[in-house]
Amino acid sequence: xxxxxxxxxxxSTSDRFLFLEPSLKESAESLLAxxxxxxxxxxxxxxxxxxxxxxxxxxxxxxxxxxxxxxxADFFGFLSDSGRFPAAREWVGDVRILEKEYLNYFxxxxxxRGETYKKKTIxxxxxxxxxxxxxxxxxxxxxxxxx
Length: 147
Prior knowledge:
By secondary structure, the protein is mainly alpha-helical. It folds into 2 domains: about 5-105; about 120-145, no CATH class. Helix content is about 55%, strand content about 0%. It is elongated, with a radius of gyration of 23 Å.
């Protein structure tokens, strides 16, 4: 399997790279290397999504973090159009699909929204009815079984 990180230097000397914003150019090579390391050799859509989400939390200016999907789409387009890795054309579509969701991770102040955590169990007080449905108090019914 081809290591796509080998093509980052080719991309950074290409004409496509010249059209990137200067602030994005400074971090482009390290961002691409980080992303390609995260996704591994055979990424799925879910891996792309998780890796892109993790990039939102990097210690970079907000303007750079918001343009990461554009950088990735351009890099994958370069790989496909230049014939270095034709399968990357599909990844351009994946990045475009995830771009809006990625931008929604950011709050107006530039911080990243966290994921909502939902407890899998309910809290039961000692004197509450037992959740098993027996009608007894929890302390008399099932509490001794789990203590």
